[in-house]
Amino acid sequence: MTEVLTARPSMPAAIAALRSALAGGLDPSADPARGVVPVPSGQFLLMPAFWGAYAGVKVATVAPGNPALGRPRIQGEYLLLDGPTLTPLALLDGVALTSVRTAAVSALAVDCLAPPDASRLVVFGTGPQAASHIEALRSVRSVREVVVVGRSPSRTAEFAAACDARVGTAADVASADLVACCTTSPTPLFDGALVRDSAVVVAVGSHEPHVREVDSALAARATVVVEAVETALREAGDVVLAVSDGALAASELVPLSEVVRGVAALGVGPRLFKSVGMAWEDLVVAATTYEAARGESR
């Protein structure tokens, strides 16, 4: 019988599992391409993956008009399967899984790329991903100050108070050690020239090639790390548009797996991690959550 797992995945366990999977040889470029079907109210997403003893698929929807109706913008479920037989094993909340795995991948990148003493975090956004990123980045660095930048003054103030943070502006990136972009903005959130050479920026807001949260000025200065090069060139607007502008060469993109394994050549200047969210991440975190619920460990 398929188990229904209601517990939210553990952030520290998710970060550790993603690190272990990449260090152990998991190849993100082997992921099937995300299935995206436009529908009148938004998008229907299908994300299958196979890894080790497990397989799985996330079925999700993106409905931009939902927040105005009091419903989540993203909804979905995750079905975890036994790898050899493809027998269903467990059903997980796709929204909770996405929230944790996205921030966990960002935290893994930050842990590999940021100075050990990075302590000042600027977060763009006030939604679930912004909250998850604050939690995740606090788990890999001793973050002493969090600054939140949002569109709605009242919502931003409320969110900042809940996260023990203060409200700021885009100009705060000039003194940030870490910047997390967790929005649905189709255009850059700040001037990339303001980012310090020692800073790490993560951008997770989109998997569409025509929108971006960071500008070409930052991409031109930064070491740009991605989950998988081919996927980034297909889905990551922050990368696609910078390449189109001539600010970034596709050959300069650095796979996260090489960073985790310590074989990547990292240049001077800022580091930018652009994530589009991939199916292998869902599967690794879902499998780890399933094993934890059963009292198993890798």
UniProtKB/TrEMBL annotation:
<dbReference type="InterPro" id="IPR003462">
    <property type="entry name" value="ODC_Mu_crystall"/>
</dbReference>
<dbReference type="InterPro" id="IPR036291">
    <property type="entry name" value="NAD(P)-bd_dom_sf"/>
</dbReference>
<dbReference type="InterPro" id="IPR023401">
    <property type="entry name" value="ODC_N"/>
</dbReference>
<dbReference type="Pfam" id="PF02423">
    <property type="entry name" value="OCD_Mu_crystall"/>
</dbReference>
<protein>
    <submittedName>
        <fullName>Ornithine cyclodeaminase family protein</fullName>
    </submittedName>
</protein>
